[in-house]
Design brief:
Elements lengths: L1 E2 L3 E3 L5 E10 H4 L9 E3 L9 H20 L8 E5 L6 H6 L7 E3 L6 H14 L5 E8 L1 H8 L15 E2 L2 E8 L10 E9 L14 H20 L8 E4 L3 H14 L8 E3 H4 L3 H4 L5 E2 L1 H17 L5 E5 L1 E3 L3 H5 L6 E3 L1 E8 L2
Parallel strand pairs: 3-4, 5-6, 5-7, 8-13, 11-12, 11-14
Antiparallel strand pairs: 1-2, 2-10, 3-9, 7-9, 10-17, 14-17, 15-16
Helix pairs in contact: 6-7
Length: about 350
């Protein structure tokens, strides 16, 4: 199962059995609004504060993914979940009522890729029949923790991205006949976990530049480990590089001999309308790639429009402490290979 230097190829690929997406009002007004399962018009989600709102969103997304797959909570052996907040408080408070053994994950905005990879590895190794991968972010909680109070009204540079208020959840399990009402299977055929890449970027308002080199490294590693190139995929989909990071990614890949211009897609660019919604470089946050995966990418695969994609969420591994100490911003990107196929 080990492939090359860093990857894993699954001989009996785990399936993405069901999935769900929930997002806020702004995301619902974007290009993917019609694809998202639930659009909450009040970003407080009926709660008393922003952090509780994000927790409520996680629980709702997890329950909806289970409901859509006809799966009961007790059938899920392990939960892999995370968010952007300190000590993962959105996740710990949001999933406590699920009563599922949990692995809390922090990969910054790459967390959905990390969760899917670990869920698939766990299922394939025989440690679980059903697992659940969840990742969320909330604009207000992220601004509060990482940037400025909302009431401050600071000006954002054009390189900045807008943290997505949203959550995606996906059930990953064995191909044992219970796969909901799918006519097409969604198989995780391999993963390429990324390594930390630090090119010395220090501008927290330009995280696309910090994450692009990590995305380039993981894509190249995936190509090398599996003996493929860009023609193997219908789409190579990064998490939240935005307009700035996308340009850097395409330029760096071209320098290495790979032209991704026609097959690259970025979740942060897809989820908002940059001209109408004033989000500057695009979207970001754990929820950015998680929502886009569950609302847009997986349905495209399930319909047969796409056959195979490399899903590559990207993360900027900074904190308020590291930023205030003048440290650089390391990046990471985790690759998940997802393939569609007709039911046997």
């Amino acid at each position: 199962m080990q492939r090359g230097k860093a990857s894993i190829g699954f001989e009996d690929p785990p399936l993405i059995i069901s999935y769900a997406s929930i997002a806020g009002k702004k995301e619902g007004e974007g290009p993917l609004g019609a694809c998202i399962d639930i659009i909450e018009q009040n970003d407080m989600f009926g709660m008393d504060n922003w952090e509780q709102a994000e927790s409520a969103m996680q629980k709702q997304a997890a329950d909806l993914a289970l409901e859509k797959g006809g799966i009961r909570r007790r059938e899920i052996r392990y939960l892999f979940a995370g968010d952007l907040l300190g000590q993962l408080i959105a996740t710990s408070f949001g999933t406590v009522d699920l009563e599922i053994p949990m692995f809390g994950l922090y990969g910054a905005c790459s967390t959905m890729g990390e969760a899917l990879a670990l869920a698939a590895m766990t299922v394939h190794a025989g440690y679980a029949d059903r697992t659940l991968a969840v990742a969320s972010s909330h604009f207000a909680t992220a601004e509060k923790q990482f940037r400025f109070p909302l009431s401050y009204g600071n000006q954002r540079p054009q390189s900045a991205t807008w943290t997505v208020t949203g959550c995606g959840a996906a059930v990953v399990g064995k191909a044992d006949g219970k796969i909901g009402n799918m006519k097409e299977t969604l198989r995780i055929i391999g993963v390429t976990p990324g390594r930390i890449v630090d090119m010395g970027a220090q501008d927290s308002m330009n995280m696309g530049a910090a994450m692009a080199p990590a995305a380039v490294h993981t894509i190249r590693q995936n190509f090398e480990d599996f003996g493929v190139d860009e023609t193997y995929y219908d789409r190579i989909i990064t998490g939240d590089l935005g307009e700035v990071g996308r340009k850097l990614l395409l330029d760096m890949m071209k320098q290495g001999g790979s032209d991704l211009t026609n097959i690259h897609m970025d979740c942060g660019i897809e989820i908002y309308d940059s001209e109408k919604q004033d989000t500057h470089a695009g979207g970001s946050g754990c929820g950015c790639s998680a929502v886009t995966l569950c609302a847009y990418i997986l349905p495209k695969l399930r319909s047969g429009e796409w056959k195979r994609v490399l899903f590559l969420p990207t993360g900027a591994l900074l904190s308020t402490v590291s930023f205030n100490e003048g440290r650089s911003i390391p990046g990471i990107a985790h690759g998940v290979m997802i393939e569609s196929g007709a039911m046997a």
